[in-house]
Amino acid sequence: MKETMLEIKNLTCGYDTKLVLQDTNLKVEKKEFIGIIGPNGSGKTTLLRAITRVLKPNKGVILLQGKDIWQMGFRELSKRIAVVSQSLPTGSMSVEEFVLLGRIPYLERFQFLETKRDLEIAKQSMDLTDTLRLKNQLIEEISGGERQLALIARALTQKPALLLLDEPTAHLDITHQVGILDLVKRLNRDFGLTVIMVLHDLNLASLYCDRLILLHNGLIHKEGAPQEVLTYQTIEEVYKTVVVIKQNPLTSKPYVFLVSEEERNRKPT
Amino acid sequence: MLVLLAAAVLSLSVGSAGIPIKKIIPLLMEGKGSVEYSILFNIRAPRIILGLAVGGALSLAGVILQGMFRNPLVGPYTLGISGGAALGVCLNIVLRLSKTFGLISLPIFGFLGAVMVILLVYSLSLRKGILKIQGLLLTGVMISFISSALIMLFMAISHAKDLQGIVFWIMGSLEEPSWFLIKVVLFLSTLSLGISYLFCLDLNALSLGEEEALHLGINTERTKRLLFIIASVLTGCSVSVAGIIGFVGLVVPHFVRMFVGRDHRILLVSSFLCGGSFLIFCDTLARTVISPLELPVGVITGILGGSLFIYALTKKQAAL
Fold this sequence. Notes:
The structure holds two protein chains of two kinds.
Chain A: E1 4-14, E2 19-29, E3 33-37, H1 44-51, E4 59-64, E5 67-68, H2 74-80, E6 81-84, H3 95-100, H4 116-128, H5 144-157, E7 162-166, H6 174-191, E8 194-198, H7 202-208, E9 211-216, E10 219-224, H8 226-229, H9 232-239, E11 243-247, E12 254-258, H10 261-265
Helix pairs in contact in A: 4-5
Chain B: H1 2-13, H2 21-30, H3 35-69, H4 81-94, H5 97-101, H6 105-125, E1 126-127, E2 130-131, H7 133-157, H8 160-171, H9 179-197, H10 200-206, H11 210-215, H12 220-242, H13 248-260, H14 264-288, H15 297-319
Antiparallel strand pairs in B: 1-2
């Protein structure tokens, strides 16, 4: 039987002036790899922020492994959910120090030093993310792709059951885009980590995610396997852009082609 | 630690009546009753202890605030707390309240002024139960301007004799006759060091930003409030006892960060100790440069701190 990792019931949530998400329901099974897609302002990041308790919902509950997240302590929550946020880290701290920050939820109030086990876990996550070789370099001296890896290493050091990623491939070249997503996929497959990822790139989402959630104006417009969600009717309706969708010859997953204005106006012969 | 000890000993020995360092220990052991003993104990020791307490408190407040705001230009005086304290003292001097209530009313008024500002800044920055860090900073800076304008107003309408008192107080000094107040400041600053140390990991996490700290399981609301209050109390009591001694709280944290890095587990304690020794050292200079006259210690901390800092900064850039 499948175990539920996260259940969102009737979530309405937003900011002072505007409610972004309305009456959202979502159920995520353990070990699923979920992609959240949708146009800018459709509520993707808001959904992530609600799950991590940054935003208090106006209505509805969010259950993590059957427990209401607002009934949990901050530390307890951060032992189960780790977040790879959009902003890359800066500052003059070494990669190892940065990754070790992920152990903070596990340190007691009167415990100021990490134990051997903490150091061991940090080393493992740096090893997995291929950042061990950078451990003595300063965060501000490594490249954007490497910073993103360090950010993932820190999240893994929290030993979470659920990993949230907010556009992990933004600003990265294709090598790093694929590298990061391959890594996340590996973590999902080999370590049973449940993954929820916000992505702008529909083709990457199609390639890596088991299930896609398409958000539109704060509502879940459609959800399902990539081939169910990424149809040209749906995409054109939500994104208001003309697209052509073909199958990827290798994976037979849908691939979205954009169409420029010139091409659009050219009459089909 | 060693630096602190050296500064303390140096300060004990140097003064308008020089006492050689090697004479100090025998004096402490058996010199009771002699003139030198009383100079050491009644004049210099209190200044050293107050220097440690005030310098430590200001630097600690600086580290906490810079860590919390993630802004290197924030210091204990940015939040208007010192302005409030100065205003309180000014009011006291102008209204001649110290004549009726005694000299002890000066620091008390200073502290009251500081507390008022803290409450004002704090409540203005609370929005829907959330303490807005940027709001805190902006309100603090504005209140600081308002209080300095009011101080200028008082200065403009006060008598020449009061004016000198105000100016002298504002410039700051470690001259403090009351052992009781010295003990209070020392107690509060070490207590705050202890409490804030419990939050060193929270501060480390906050250096990544509030949302990231939340993701790491930090109760950011509680931490922000507590740290703000600690920093305010530290600033408030140092300012009300020692006046506005500039620069210590801004520069010492930077200086220490250059040497020990950004980990608050080390940063908090070393800033406290460094701040203390720096102030003791500056005070010693202030007493001796044009002895027997005394310079305001704020002059020394500003000149020395600023130039040392620029020197360290250029050197560090050259090394990179």
